[in-house]
Design brief:
The protein has helices spanning 127-137, 142-146, 158-162, 205-215, 222-230; strands at residues 15-16, 20-22, 85-88, 91-95, 111-115, 118-121, 148-152, 174-178, 293-299, 309-310, 321-324. The chain is of the alpha+beta class and 339 residues long. A three-stranded mixed beta sheet has the order 1-9-11. The structure holds calcium ion (2 copies). One calcium ion binds at residues 253-255, 265, 267, 269, 328.
Length: 339
Amino acid sequence: MAAPRLLLGTVLACLTLRLCLAVCPETGAVDPGLGGEEAQGSCGCSTSRGNRAPGEAASRKYSREVHLPQQPGNGPKDKDEGRQMASIPAGVFTMGTDEPAIQQDGEWPARKIHINHFFMDLYEVSNREFEKFVNATGYLTEAERFGDSFVFEGMLSEQVKSEIHQAVAAAPWWLPVKGADWKHPDGPDSNIVDRMDHPVLHVSWNDAVAFCTWAGKRLPTEAEWEYSCRGGLENRLFPWGNKLHPNGQHYANIWQGDFPTSNTREDGYKGTAPVTAFPPNSYGLYNIVGNAWEWTSDWWSISHSADTAQNPKGPLTGTDRVKKGGSYMCHKWPAHTTA
Ligand SMILES: [Ca+2]
Ligand SMILES: [Ca+2]
């Protein structure tokens, strides 16, 4: 359970979405989306998550050749014919861990979870995809309506930074920036012209649900997200295995260096990367960890039953939604399959 450790007033520059589509086994009908409230939260990156490395070899089955993407057969037609989805087979997996490093993260206990067959977007939603939605509907995101959003200070120009005189005490690297939104991800003097294939940012949970409704899909549950993130592997720290850099290669866009002052960008990216960057996991999902945090439909909670469950949808109520997978601002722990 990715813990929203900070509560900020609006949306942040490291959240995006990935859509899923569930097919009911008998009718082929699409499971409808879930309602929602205003989203709050932070990047939530941490350097103190636990490590229960089982010591298995890294990167088994992790290649571009396995589990080629499929088009869902019975769901509504995707608005973007170029957007493909992976067919995620039904199965059982162990969700969470009995050895959490941080109790308040709610990553525990380990429990058996049964998941039905569903489809998952191969990619985080890109600026190009989100622009199609906005052009078709005239939708205004919450950041645009609020008039500001939080941006990581390392992405701001000196001019914009000089005009900001407040910050979040617990996370002083997040600065409230007037005019920051999905079209201006690094503040009003930035744009997405050369980032149309990067994940859309400054997307609140309500924005994400609106996009899903337009696309005829829904957000994945946390269980579906974690199941698909694992790519069929068991007891692995990362979607590709247990080593962060198998064979010295980078498998995700995360942070190298001392956060927040030194970003050595050894993986090639200071900020976000194209949604197609880096190898996909065994189900064909790209950037399922790293790059941008991804919304799920579940309410966030640290309390979970150890009982076996079928397609759990999380708590009935809450104050924040679960986001998964870490971002370019995170060190390795939020890239864990349980994060
Ligand atoms: Ca990076
Ligand atoms: Ca991601």
